[in-house]
Amino acid sequence: MTLEAKNLCFTYPCGRSVLQNLSLRVEGGERVGIFAPSGRGKTTLCKLLAGYEKPQSGQVLLDGKPLVSYRGYCPVQLIWQHPEQVVDPRLTLGKTLREAGEPEERLVQALGIQPEWLSRYPAELSGGELQRFCIARALGPATRFVLADELSAMLDLATQAQLWSFLVEETTRRGIGLVAVSHSAPLLDRVCTRRIEL
Ligand SMILES: Nc1ncnc2c1ncn2[C@@H]1O[C@H](COP(=O)(O)OP(=O)(O)OP(=O)(O)O)[C@@H](O)[C@H]1O
């Protein structure tokens, strides 16, 4: 499969123009690092690639078809920088995990998700623990591309290394394309097959 951004232009309603004519092509199984200083538009690009925002002009295509024409579970999944902002605080983590269907036990174990966390609420877990649930939720059976937006910025080095090596192994095994966003060029060079600068 191919994920393609074609000539994307995006301006927020306040008039802040963030992306001008941006094009990008990612193949299944490829790992592309996106490197840019703060405020350049990395998160905005991820939101466009996952269909959370619509460009004023240009298109996001999945295998040549507009992403907006895919119904149901989106094959392009975004792992957000701040997991606490993208989980429902009123749901237990067990329910959060099942939002994308029954999770594979293998994934739950590989991510180090502890059984006793499942009955807790998001506010009762650390950021790193919560991010593991968001990663598992993003890796449903129909996922073809994963966008990882600074997913490890708030984690200690050992946890960062563990989560990245899991993501590399899992995406390689399933031929999933990965777009990784970071301020750290060394991290992207370790994780990705190529790196681009915005
Ligand atoms: N909802 C919004 N409304 C208006 N402007 C916004 C909105 N979200 C982001 N911006 C602005 O758009 C620009 C790009 O933001 P974005 O979050 O995409 O950058 P980024 O490269 O991911 O930054 P960082 O590395 O700090 O996370 C910034 O100048 C930001 O202030």
From TrEMBL:
Keyword Nucleotide-binding: yes
Keywords in alphabetical order: ATP-binding, Nucleotide-binding, Transport
Domain ABC transporter: 3-195
Flavoprotein among keywords: no
Domain of life: Bacteria
PROSITE patterns xrefs: ABC_TRANSPORTER_1, ABC_TRANSPORTER_2
Pfam families: ABC_tran
Protein name: ATP-binding cassette domain-containing protein
Protein's organism: Allofournierella massiliensis
Organismal lineage: Bacteria, Bacillati, Bacillota, Clostridia, Eubacteriales
